[in-house]
Amino acid sequence: MSFPIELLVDIFSRHKEPPALMSLALVCRQWKEIVYNDHSLWTTINVTPRTTLGQVRTQLARSGNRHLDVEVSFVPSMEYADFEDVLAAVFVETSRIETLEIGTLHTFGDDDDDELGDESCWPAAVERALCTGVAWPQLRVLDLEGEMVFGDTLEIDIFAPTLVRLRLDCVSVREWAQLLRGTQLRDLDLGKAISGDMFELMMVLPNLTNLRRLGLNDNTDGDETLVFSLPHGKPPVFLHLVAITVYWETADISSLLSFLGCCPSLEQLEVMVTSVVNQDPTASNPVFKLPRLESLRLVVSGGNDRTSSDFLNLLAPALCESKLRDVDLDNMSIRSLEVLLNPHLERLRLKSVVCDPRALTHGLVQCTNLRVLELREVEMPSLGDAWTSDVRLSRLRSATLVALEADSRLRAVAAPDRLAHNRRLPGYFIPLVDSPGVMAATVQGVPLTVEEMLRLMKDLGNGGMLFVESHNTFYNTPGLKIGAPLRSDEAQYREFEVSGLVDAWRSLHSAYNILWRIGSLGIDICHLTEFFKVVLSESLEGAQLPLLFRLTICAGYMEGLREDKLESTLDDVGVLCASPGAVDAPYLLQVVFDNSAYEEDPLQVSQAALTRFISLFKAPFGPEVIMKAVIRT
Fold it and tell me: Is residue 10 part of a domain?
């Protein structure tokens, strides 16, 4: 049976690597003829230091006169046999190359810098092809990623009139006007731009009327302030620019606002800077609107609270007609939430911000489509002990609360009041997520009271089977993660910290029969004794875990934990149970002992101690014992 040639070519084109093609050619005569004679299968050329000249020449010959997609990977300043000849053979075909991606395989450390001296990091063939004014008539995508070594960088000088996507990292441009002349550039992404490039680029940028995406990134460790220096006179208009991403050490906010005023179609704005300059809230700034903006992320990681807040306040007038769907704010005080919270909002993430709880609650009422809510290290200085809220976010699916950490930089909450402030946060947060539609709810950094825990757990799983994890958290406090499987690809869970495990287990069982609903239990060995104390005391008819089918005991990493402590904990549970078969677990099939947290020197448990522990369960099927690390015989 033979397949249509068009179908086979379509299938083969998904595996254009020469070794894969040659394997396909061995199947039958028809496949061999297709592989050898269809030029389109040989148009993707990958060049590495291991590529031979013969391989490249064969592939170029079989590609006919088709356009080429070329990817080159090299190790800077290293010489390989034939590598320059291989690159030269490829770059002879500049008239056919449509996509060119060149990147390094190694990132230098300080020791490497000393060995390189003044040598160029780039292969000579690359420099000849990209730095001498060569014309690339078919080039549509150019992606160059270099290394910063002693200031040595590639300075490109080419003519590419069909260029639509340009990405440069640690690469400079000799003359932007020449490079972009006549192009229809749509995507421009500059990483680690060289000092002096930015001013000339800004002079040329107004000519890029088809630009859709602009990314500027100096890895937030550069020494050049980012200034959007547009030409004087009538400002340009970037009708097609829909996305701007800026990751920079220092940015001139006044010029950035002026530039945004030229982008009426902007849909996505992401600005992450360490500090901002040239901002004056009292000065007159361009009056403009961003009616199509849907995604906003603002991060000012350094500086003082006022500068980051003024940045948002200066931008706020432009957002009054925006239909924001995704808002992510980090490290600022929020004075007004009206322009940010609207019925279109689907995701709200606030981190290290100061805001008024009443204003936030009032704004959340408007967010009828909110699906994701994250409050991370948020300061609410006016939050009181008796806070109540009747806000119901009917479409909320995921919610996270992270309290202030010990080393958090405080703006509005005094350091001595940190614990009291954290203690009030769950009372504000839990009513917001009190809905059966919330699939995931997490509270970190503050233990919940029994009342808060029970409210958070209400309606979870509707009385069905639960998967439970009991582990020490990052803050070294007891934590529970309780989940309920809904469908094969979806689960609902609640994750939180508690002050005491015994009280938590008893309260959860009293309210929701949790012990009788556990199907899978993963538990730190340091929590094991408390768990079985509750199991043995909560039933007049004997200890029961009627749905338990898998028990995983984890030797989670703890300072000072020793092997004798592990075994004594297992034996302590045996003492509590008093006799074999004390815990009725009719469906228990697996007991897993996992000490993989100690990767370098895994703790061990003796077979005798494990056998004694298994005997405590009345399990008619005889559970399988699985060791995820080392067992000592």
Answer: no
Q: Which two tokens stand for residue 623?
A: 């559970």
Instruction: Name, in order, each residue with C-beta under 8 angstroms of 68's C-beta and a sequence gap of 6 or more.
Output: 43, 44, 45, 93, 96, 97, 98, 99
pLDDT exceeds 80 at position 13: no
State the pLDDT at residue 174. Answer: 87
Are 432 and 401 contacting, i.e. CB atoms less than 8 angstroms apart?
A: no
pTM reported for the whole predicted model: 0.84
What residue numbers bound the domain in which 605 lies?
Answer: 465-632
Torsion of CA 584, 586, 590, 592, to 10 degrees: -10
Evaluate whether residue 505 is within a structural domain.
yes
C-alpha angle with apex 542: 541 to 548, nearest 5 degrees? 115
DSSP 117: T
Cα 590 to Cα 624: distance, rounded to the nearest angstrom: 5
Is residue 594 in a domain? yes
Residue 519 pLDDT greater than 60, yes or no: yes
Give the CA diameter of the chain: 90
Question: What's the total number of domains in the chain?
Answer: 1
Judged against a pLDDT cut of 90, whether residue 520 lies above it is answered with: yes
d(CA 299, CA 308): 8
Of the candidates 168, 164, 167, the one whose C-alpha atom is nearest the C-alpha of residue 154 is: 168
